[in-house]
Amino acid sequence: VVATRQHYLSARQARLWRAIAAAFSPARDEGDGMQAYDAVNALIGERLDEGGVHVIGLGCADGAKERRLLEALPPGGPVTATPVDVSLPLLQVAADALDGAGGALLRRPIVCDLGLAAEDLPKMVGEAPGTRVITLYGMIPGMEAFAAIAAALALLRSGDMLAVSANLLPAGDDALKRIVAQYDNEPTREWLWALCEDAGIERGQAVVTVGALEDAGAGAQAAVGAWLEPAVDLQLELEAGAVSLAAGQPVRLLRSARHTPAGLEAIISAAGLELLALEVSPSGEEGVALALCP
Q: Measured between alpha carbons, how far is residue 3 from residues 192, 212, 229 in Å?
């Protein structure tokens, strides 16, 4: 199994991912997913006071959603933004996007793996004036939900807020088929192949396949997977050491989970947070929850 973070590390991977997100993600659709984010952004603005706000984008990618939040906040106290992501190329884009957005002061961007760095996050993020608003957008589909939430919990103080999104499985008999199609396409294969080619695998030596996962994972309603299927035995020299891949033995490259609104609410509740709102996009494919740390 390939760790999800490995697909975002190079400049080429980041560029390909941004193109895929723009083309296929309901979260980037002004007529769909963005409506859920805008509703939550408005609620965040209503709860802030003159003390200001510190927006911390965990797994912020290119910072597009965090920028939209900053620009939606009403005038008030000081605004600070801290972008956090495992991908340096994406973090550089995010830093440019957030600097000055809504009058925000950009703090030092942080490159880290949320699954490994939860305990160190408070020291890395540091202090800034106002209520903390932690965003955890687009992370739950690709990593275990509770590992992602743990990173946010390390930063939340009483009165702070967490905005978390999840890809949802909408109603309908063909829902999963439509979701798989968002990944089973040439642009997504090109993105997945970037990692394989960086590892020294040539196109004729393997194929990439996409389909539904039988085991969606803890708390998920369904999931899409992508696999590398070697046509020949492969001996690879990677940063972590030598790796052998046997012909005909697939290696999972990607897992993207789909939740339900009830499942997202359960994740918030299990974290000990108070659910303030849960907005669902018109298509039913994107859910955004806002929670309060008691």
A: 12, 18, 17
